[in-house]
Amino acid sequence: MPGNRRTRTTKRRSNGNGRSRSGKDAIALLKADHRQVEKWFSQFEKAREGRRKAELAEQICKALKVHTAIEEEIFYPAFYEATGDKEIHHEAEIEHNSAKKLIAEIEGSNSKDDYFDARVTVLSEMIKHHVREEEQPGGMFAKARKSDIDLVELGEQLRARKIELEKDESPKGGIRAIATRLLET
């Protein structure tokens, strides 16, 4: 199994409803990410100004890089360990690899590039397909819910790692780092 950052967790419902203190188990957190990126893709489709499209593409790419990292480092290994479903796991990993290649192309271009809009549109289509497969009945999320994965604990791990990665994706280490630097001066 690839880069397993987490420890084995078993199904445990800490407050009786499967939710963490922040209200989101692992699947709810991942679905919230899906909805946010869908919203940005929709805004991209409607945008006319190159600068706005570039801003949205940057947001989309940053969010997807963080999302794919937390899935690959934490959720996918836990899913594979708990279910042994090689087909779903491997297909998700391959889909991520394809998306990451396209993200790199988008980040290496700009809104004046003839293929910029096409790249973002194709990425949107790839992500919509990937999300449908994860969220469909019998898909990865449904199978994870039926397994012995502690989705509350896994959600906490995902959330913590997401915060770390978002700091790394922000200019100069994120808002907290900027505030700390300002207070130190």
How large, in whole angstroms, is the Cα Rg?
18 Å
The rounded distance between the terminal residues' Cα atoms is 46 Å
Q: Pairing-aware structural class of the strands and helices?
A: mainly alpha
How many domains make up the coordinates? 1
> Can you give the mean pLDDT?
85
Shape: elongated
DSSP summary, beta strand count: 0
Major β-sheet annotation: none
- Tell me roughly what share of residues is in helical segments: over 70%
- State the order of secondary-structure elements, H for helix, E for strand: HHHHHHH
The fraction of residues in strands falls at: under 5%
Overview of this protein structure:
The protein is an all-alpha fold and 185 residues long. 72% of the residues lie in helices and 0% in strands. The protein has one domain. It has helices at 26-46, 50-83, 86-107, 116-135, 140-146, 151-169, 174-184. The N and C termini lie far apart (46 Å).
